[in-house]
Task: inverse folding
């Protein structure tokens, strides 16, 4: 099994909490007594995970250019979920399905930020393509600040086929498009929903767009023509959360 570095306090802590197999944790000597690291050290001891204290220079070499916060874990690579896995989750939790489909997000920092928001908004699974898109890299894990341990990610070869499978499961496909005819707050996001977002440069591809049930737009009053994809994801997910909270209140 390939190894993966988990970098930073929250990502390492959440990996241990989630039961991710961790072989070894490196901790900077200077942070040995820091309160922020005590939960990690307690969990590591309880799980029998080796902890090595070393100079910060070693951690800098292990994670060049990264803000490692004095802690790095060497763990097994994060495994992808399957589509069947995420289709089961809403029923198990007694919740209305909510998925996020990313049609070619290439910047790992954007993907990490999206996963962090997806966790906060209660998304049951994120779908990404296996080509021309970021995978679950160390940068994604660091930016996600631990959310990667809680949000299942599915990698698929064909986004269009995946949308059709979601439709057969009773999920409505909501595509985000700059000139979408429906303003996002007028969309019905209470019903089972998969929100489709495009890549940073090209947006949602034509074929994918044509397989959406409807398209929504995010109105803008400024001069910049588009929003960062992670910001758009946050707006749409929290509108979904708002609508569902209003219904249940």
Result:
């Amino acid at each position: 099994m390939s190894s993966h570095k988990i970098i930073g306090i929250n990502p390492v802590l959440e990996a241990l909490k989630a039961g991710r197999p961790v072989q070894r944790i490196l901790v900077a000597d200077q942070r040995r007594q820091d309160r922020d690291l005590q939960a990690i050290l307690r969990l590591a001891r309880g799980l029998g995970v080796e902890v090595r204290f070393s100079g910060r220079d070693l951690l800098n070499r292990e994670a060049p250019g990264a803000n490692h916060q004095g802690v790095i874990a060497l763990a097994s690579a994060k495994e992808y979920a399957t589509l069947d896995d995420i289709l089961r989750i809403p029923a198990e939790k007694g919740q209305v399905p909510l998925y996020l489909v990313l049609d070619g997000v290439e910047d790992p920092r954007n993907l990490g930020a999206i996963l962090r928001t997806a966790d906060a908004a209660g998304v049951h699974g994120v779908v990404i393509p296996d080509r021309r898109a970021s995978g679950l890299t160390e940068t994604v894990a660091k930016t996600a600040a631990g959310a990667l341990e809680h949000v299942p990610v599915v990698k698929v070869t064909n986004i269009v086929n995946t949308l059709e499978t979601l439709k057969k499961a009773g999920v409505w496909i909501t595509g985000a498009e700059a000139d979408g005819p429906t303003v996002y707050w007028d969309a019905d996001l209470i019903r089972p929903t998969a929100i489709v977002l495009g890549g940073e440069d090209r947006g949602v591809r034509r074929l994918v767009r044509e397989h959406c049930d409807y398209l929504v737009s995010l109105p803008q009053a400024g001069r910049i023509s588009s929003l960062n994809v992670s910001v758009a994801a946050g707006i749409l997910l929290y509108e979904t959360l708002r609508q569902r909270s209003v219904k249940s209140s």
